[in-house]
TrEMBL record:
Keywords: Folate biosynthesis, Magnesium, Metal-binding, Transferase
PROSITE patterns: DHPS_1, DHPS_2, PTERIN_BINDING
GO MF assignments: dihydropteroate synthase activity
Domain of life of the source: Bacteria
Name of this protein: Dihydropteroate synthase
Cofactor: Mg(2+)
Catalysed transformations (reactions): (7,8-dihydropterin-6-yl)methyl diphosphate + 4-aminobenzoate = 7,8-dihydropteroate + diphosphate
Recorded family membership: Belongs to the DHPS family.
Pathway membership, UniProt: Cofactor biosynthesis; tetrahydrofolate biosynthesis; 7,8-dihydrofolate from 2-amino-4-hydroxy-6-hydroxymethyl-7,8-dihydropteridine diphosphate and 4-aminobenzoate: step 1/2
Recorded name of the encoding gene: folP
Enzyme nomenclature, EC number: 2.5.1.15
Chain segments annotated as coiled-coil in the UniProt record: none
Function per UniProt: Catalyzes the condensation of para-aminobenzoate (pABA) with 6-hydroxymethyl-7,8-dihydropterin diphosphate (DHPt-PP) to form 7,8-dihydropteroate (H2Pte), the immediate precursor of folate derivatives.
Amino acid sequence: MSAAASTIGPSTATAGPATLRALLERPVAAVMGILNITPDSFSDGGEFLAPDLARAHAAQMIAEGADIIDIGAESTRPYGSQPVSAEQELQRLRPVLAAVAALGTPVSIDSMKAEVVDWALSNGAAIANDVWGLQRDPKMAAVVAAHGTPVVVMHNRDAVDETIDIVADINAFFDRTLDIAARAGIPTDHIVLDPGIGFGKTPRQSMIALARLAAFKHFGLPILVGASRKRFISTIAPSEPKDRLGGSLAAHLIAVQNGAHIIRAHDVAATVQALKVAHAITTSSEDRR
């Protein structure tokens, strides 16, 4: 682990887990706002590369109700993204992370590289978000364990296989991830599961994962879903990424109905509103005044 210690807010070793517990105790699902500081992300690539624009966008999402800001400096979109080195990621993060963390809302670091996650968790980030579920970088689990922070572990595949039972595949993937986490010493209550909508899946498999989200409840862990602007929406209603708000909200409301605790979204204000209204409607019969 990096010897550098964060000077922003409380230690991530205590702030991260406490933040996660608090969010999961709320009656309405938490919202993770997406901040891509990349040139090639599928829906907003290049828009927030400049540090001042990145900070401003984070501040806007916080004002709109984001509970977590998820910063990514490498696009992980399944089609057309270009791999970057750890140093390139860090060059993008260094001018941004401290300023965003200073806004006071917990920050998660969206990276599949242990070196990047190590640096970010030492410099203001409170949560790790690994799109390969601790299974790609062999050092990732040890880094997360050493920092004592929560980690989002996402299901992923190197290639799409339309013949497989995607729910069984996700369950098997999570079994492997949890074994890796246990051997590294990551507490179970620090782990959040993400079925990886749009990653290594056909559009139909992504929809099946959402429809059968309850199939992952047996792990006893919180579930994060990020269906925001994903390609499967366009296979139902042809649209460009920024024109998929309606489909994103529909997917996320169904995800919460099926057991999701955290929603990762580009359009924070609309997502927060939809979640609050849906919760109010579904619990209205409990009001006996």
